[in-house]
């Protein structure tokens, strides 16, 4: 017996994958979404919309949550082992992506309770074939992976277009962001940061409060990005050099220059 699980982040790729699987009549046992409590408000509305469409298929997104929210892990949780015992986790970094590890642990615990072999549907597109190949190498007798969008030859642009055709628009988030993830993700690009700082002051304010709280704990790595604090980011965006660089990028995008 195998249980078929959709890994669902709520973004364009996993949403497109989910409904393509339904169109093709593929078996779906669970649709797993891990909520750390830091998604854009529009994402939670999107999950509700997805569940509404899933009713006629007798399916529903299963939401998994950790014991503490992401914010609690960052500011008040006390580590029980390691170099910084007694201190909270603070912001994730490229070399310490504890938030991703937390999501994996939550999903793995859920799967372990099933006590059966699983087939995981992953929403990689043809833009991410290398990632798919690496994950495929980790298959075991009890865990297999499928990449439905790659099987269909779909790109990220194809996935977004398909989602729009189904009536999903995430409140316009993809008009401002390349990827929709946790709003306080420190890995987002300058486009995402600009959107937060200039158009979502209520969310940017929360990030600044988090940074201040972490700094007060005396944690060495207190900055939102490893080499930039919120104040640094705001100063950068106010600089003429930054605006000049942004203008240049937009000019390349507008004329379809494929070097960017």
What would you note in describing this structure?
The protein is of the alpha/beta class and 260 residues long. It has a single domain (2-254), classed as Rossmann fold (3-Layer(aba) Sandwich), CATH 3.40.50. The protein is built from eleven helices and five strands. It has a five-stranded parallel beta sheet. β1 (2-7), α1 (12-23) and β2 form a beta-alpha-beta unit. α1 (12-23) packs across α7. The termini are far apart. Mean pLDDT is 90; it is low at 247-260.
Tell me the number of structural domains.
Answer: 1
Residue share in helix: 40-55%
Radius of gyration: 20 Å
Shape verdict: globular
Task: Name the helix and strand elements from N-terminus to C-terminus, one letter apiece.
Answer: EHEHEHHEHEHHHHHH
